[in-house]
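Recall the central idea of this unit: under ordinary conditions, the amino acid sequence of a chain determines the structure it adopts. In this exercise we apply that idea directly, starting from the sequence alone.
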Amino acid sequence: MRTGMNAETGEILTGWDHCVQSLAKILRTRINTRVMRRHFGSRVPELQDANANALTIFELYVAVGEAIEDPDTGEPGYSLRTIELAKAGREGQFVFLLDGIFYPLGHLGDFSVFEERHAAIPASGTRLVLTEAA
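Accordingly, the structure predicted from this sequence is:
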């Protein structure tokens, strides 16, 4: 089973909770900022302060998809199906609703077990909202 540490509290995270934290970390990390993993992250942070026009929103969708599905640095335990921008406003916060397939053993290359999962992930800040499959 996939296991890790909660970045805020230091408590143990397992399964879906750990996957959501990983997704958020990928989306919130600016590319070329991690030592020894320069290619890790996404273009989302660099788009956050751009004008929230149609082109920027489109670029955000692309940046989220590219980052999560990247074969080298993306999340191996999650296959993205749809992205919805749930919140975008003048305060500069974007919240993405991700819908996809969670593979509890995907990090080990085993995709035989899976379940539909959804998550609301703010592009900044620390609060994550987890939701079960609808």
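The chain is about 25% helix and 30% strand.
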